[in-house]
Specification:
By secondary structure, this protein is an alpha+beta fold. The chain is 53% helix and 7% strand. The strands form four sheets. Strands 5-4-7-8 form a four-stranded mixed beta sheet, with helices on one face.
Amino acid sequence: MALEIKQSLRLSQQLVMTPQLQQAIKLLQLNRMELAEVVNQELMENPILEELTETPDGENTPSPEETAQNNADPEMDQRRDEDAFLKPATKEEQLVSGKDDFNWESYVEDFNSNSSSAPSMREINEDLPSFENALTKTTSLEDHLMWQLSMTALRPEEQKLGELVIGNLSDDGYLIANLEDLAREAGIEMEDAEEVLKIVHNFDPVGVGSRNLQECLSIQAKFMQPRQPLVETIIEKHLSDLERRNYQGISKALQIPYEKVVEATKLIMELEPKPGRSFMTNDTHYITPDIYVYKVGDEFVIVLNEDGMPKLRISPYYKNILAGIGKSSDGKTTKEYVQEKLRSAVWLIRSIHNRQKTIYKVTDAIVKRQRDFFEKGVQHLKPMILKDVANDIGMHESTISRVTTNKYVHTPVGIFELKYFFNSSISAADGTDALASEAVKEKIRQMVTKEDVKNPLSDQKIVELLRNENIEIARRTVAKYRDMLGILSSGKRKKII
């Protein structure tokens, strides 16, 4: 069969994700602090972009290049005005306008001047820990155990096994690797490995390196002075009964008075089930809201948090360079470079504006749909899905999902992630308006908080109480919500001591 080359012409349509579109989507997903990092990086890489600084009295400070240009050309101000983007008349127009010709400088200045009620970064920082505290380094569990291991007289292979054990501990202090595998890696017999592990068990904190809860508590019980044989026996043989609070069963099995079991249980409850707890890093993670929602009179006002966000503009210095470049080969190359950076800078500014506009519109739609929540609290949260907000503002559901990811809003009833407001619905018993799942969870949490600890509410009892409040819900759903809230079953919540 002969091979030949032919030319053909074909027309087709396809969707192409341009770099600019990818950048716009990426910016939409970022929270305020991540966006500030991206903007600062662009300021370093793109000479066309510059940050608009302000003097203490609030007046803009020109850059050194701009100052030089102004001195050389008294008509600079007029050309700068001609080069600027078209400025919308009001902040509201800026927030809802779909036009691309947008003055980012005017938007940020006008927005900041009209949002004096929002806390400044200085006010927010007053509650943050000091700089010295942020730099303080605490001793880790691994460092603490390694120091003790170095003080122990062991053979090289035993030392290696001890290091492997310490390196395979969970944050709680439990051994999460197979000891046989570690022994093989260290080149040591299993019998000797068990002895090395016992040495680690006796390190401070006592019980570290245990393979399960029973082993952890047994090790600690042996350090009690005086020794408590009953405590050790209950831990060794009746830990499952202890977990279920079956004290009567333990009393019957061991043929001892019920009061003795209660006394032993009190001692067991003083043991530490997580030996590594005291070495856990409990650094506070501070959340800086991306949006503030305030109630002014009978209306809710939405303010985007712009504290710490660089104010961007196109450098007039490079605009004039572009205008003065000749048509030589070198000038053509320079002009192409400047034009490319200019397009990139303009697209970044417009993408940031579109991001802010979209966040505002999504938050506004949420506030309108969840007004009862903002006025009365979590129990008045209504069912809402992504499609509801998408239809309200004329955008795709995937865009709403990106906007609400990892962004937090400060409301009159607390700080919440935007995704928090999207909930499935729980039907009302009489067929009236449904209730949001988060509101039902809050009702369950409050019921458990107020229950009698000696006679805690069962899942079926919670179902009945919710039905009395016109909420129709299955028992398995109550169990699922209880697990999500971190609430134990009624049997494990029962306290008779």
